[in-house]
Amino acid sequence: MFITKQRHKAEVSDLQARLSQREARLIELEARAERAAQAAHEFAEEARYTLESAALAVNSPNSDLHTIAHALPYLYSGRRHWNDQFHPDIAADARVGAQQVTRAYGFELPADPVEAVKSILELASMLLVPSHSLPVEGLKIRYPVERLQN
Question: Are 120 and 143 in contact (CB under 8 A)?
């Protein structure tokens, strides 16, 4: 099948315009994803400060609540502040501390950053109000503590 040169140019031009639109949309979506990741990190960071204050009000600065609160932004992004540089050792230490606390309450810390933050917030709720234990019971089922086998 033959097409005219004019029709070919029109089709190529249309395809180039659609490709340009898709590239612009991709750039826009990448920017939105970056803003969403930053907003989620900032939410975890603010939750950290709120829970650390709650730990001081109800217990002591060395409580389980303080430990898991401290870990929140590190669990999400590996950084304390969004613009900070990633420090693998600090992030790993925060994760280990949070994991020790979650294991003490019968569940593993999820590997997925979003799920890890959500589980920490559910545990924090239970630590503040012990009768709010139902979400933690669900975490025990979804993320059971791994037992070392001999």
Answer: no
Please indicate, yes or no, if residue 114 is contained in any of the structural domains.
Answer: yes
Beta carbons of 75 and 113 less than 8 angstroms apart: yes
d(CA 145, CA 15): 54
- For 91-131, the pLDDT digits (tens) are 999 999 999 999 999 999 999 999 999 999 999 999 999 99
- Count CA within 13 A, CB hemisphere, residue 58: 17
d(CA 62, CA 26): 46
Q: What are the angstrom distances between the C-alpha of 102 and each of 6, 78, 122?
A: 68, 18, 11
Cα separation, 38 vs 140, whole angstroms: 29
Q: Look up the domain containing 93 and give its range.
A: 37-142
CB 123 within 8 A of CB 101: yes
Is 65 inside a domain boundary? yes
The answer to the question of residue 93 being in a domain is: yes
Question: In which element (H, E) is residue 70 found?
Answer: helix 64-77
